[in-house]
Amino acid sequence: MDSPQRPPLAHVFRGTFVHSRPSEPMEILHGHLLGVDDSGTIVFLEQADQQDQLAKKWGFKLSDIRELSNHEFFMPGMVDTHIHAPQYSFAGTRVDLPLLQWLTTYTFPTEAKYTDSDFAEEVYTRVVVCTANVIYLFDNIPEILSFIFIFSPDKFGQRAFVGKVCMDMNDTVPQYKESTADSVKETERVQPVITPRFGPSCTEDLLSALGNIAQARDLHVQSHISENEEEIKLVENMFPAYQNYTDLYDKNKLLTSKTVMAHACYLSEEELKLFSLRGAAISHCPSSNFS
């Protein structure tokens, strides 16, 4: 009987590999071979003394092996679970104000500049080149800019979960908000991450509509929660019918096993239990939380 046809290899590397396992926080593998097939899947990672057997099994020649130098090594790509592409232009600066004042003074005016497609493409390309291999991305997308960013990851072999930021309440910068209908319509065009900006920027109608989209299409969800105490009080005043901030998302079908919520600095024990029950995740963002 003929052996099953194996997919052709696109790459074979020899060198040092570093990764983590549950039983070992850092494992260093010296003198190993790694093979990658045409689909980008790693099909083997074995000791280099298995080279002849692997070459016979996978049909590669010794001349196909790319050797790393002594100072080079492979490691798994980083996954950034929370990044705002439009804010990358001032990353590491403008940290002198609390959240709500920071949004109105710096963030909203900067994000409004992204109607300039040249400016947007330049910043978004830097995001893709300089950040992680896989990103959960918050973006503000007036039509054409969505495509500029969505296709940028493909140029560099990066994977991205791109979410259109939804915000139908923003009286501080009136020109930088959208109607509930437009927000829902634009969200339906961009997949796969449903992205309400945060509780205070969305009406209950918008949150409900976004939750329905997420449920109907089994999509990922990302947003912010409990970043500072002023924000929590604002949510309590705006949505008194809900038990707490987490309940607001949960009742609107936005807290699921595919949800990533940023910050979560002040969640109660009750809220943490609900996160656990739903299987939702938290992106802690330590540098932002401490600033």
Automatic annotation (TrEMBL):
GO terms for biological process: guanine catabolic process. GO terms for molecular function: guanine deaminase activity; zinc ion binding. It comes from the Eukaryota. GO terms for cellular component: cytosol. Residues 74-289 form the Amidohydrolase-related domain. Keywords: Hydrolase, Metal-binding, Zinc. Its cofactor is Zn(2+). Pfam families: Amidohydro_1. This is GUAD deaminase. The lineage of its organism: Eukaryota, Metazoa, Chordata, Craniata, Vertebrata.
